[in-house]
Amino acid sequence: MKIAFILPSLKNQGPIIVAKDIIVGLINKVDNIDVYYFDKEEKEVDFACNTYHISFFEKIDFNKYDVVHTHMLRPDMYIWYHRKKHHKCKFISTLHQIIYDNLKGNYNKLTAFIFEKIWVKILNKQDSIVYLTYIMANLYKNRIQIPFQVIYNGRSYDKRMIDAFVDEENQILEIKRQFKVIGTHCLLTKRKGVHQSILALKYLPDYFFIVVGDGMELESLKNLAKQENVYNRCLFLGYKKNAISYLKYFDVYLATSYSEGFSLSLIETGQCSLPTVCSNIEIFKEQYNETEVVFYEIDNIPSLADAIKKAYNHREQYATNIYKRAIEDYSIEKMSTQYLELYSKR
To answer: What is the pTM of this model?
Structure first.
């Protein structure tokens, strides 16, 4: 079997990481995999196969492949624009988020409304679509009228990366001598709701908040911390390629998103046996249950503070349960096997 992946870029972002993980799981099970991408400025993710930079209007030879697998809007648009009836390969797209919620959280309602309609129309030209959750599948099943399958994301378990030394270790260990540490690692957008964690610090005088990540909300979050007089209990570390290496220093992980596709971060927290607090959005509830994480009412800051205390006070129980679920259900092997079965369907 020969497979082509088409990606918007090779940036270190969720959908690109998912594509890389699928390839890692498949590379020794198929004849050939090639990756095509549009943006050549930031090549942050390395792939275990050939990668080729192309322009949107540069058509690749689809007939070289049995499967062409796209991720994100521009690659889906590329198929919509270039696909012809004579192409014999199978065209598959993975939809990584609820489109409207994601774009509303990152931009605004008008942008979300317009681009959701465009994207849904484009996806209907694929042969099959993969949703990351059953919530997504139920939302779109009557609007995207092509065969679909739900496949949960998986992540490789790399203990060497989890245990790797970080430059700020001495600084963080000094913080841990004085405080309990809560933390998060993500792209800092409004959709991630990180400001809630800063507001919760006023209810948690013995906690310190570490943020690993960069994004359009970084300066706003710093300003909020200063306004709330908790800046001295916050550490903003910026973008880190090896972000998972910082999780071992956290006592409790915070996932405060307003919307998600299927959180890679929460798979990583499970692999690290890290007690975790999640906003009570439905997708998080599909990914983990109440024995595995602590849920709080979104935008209810006292609820968040109470959830953090509960996760910390019962940290051994939550650490054990989240690790078991992550290792058993969210592995690369399980994910890639399901994709290979989908590719092989006729």
So the answer is: 0.89
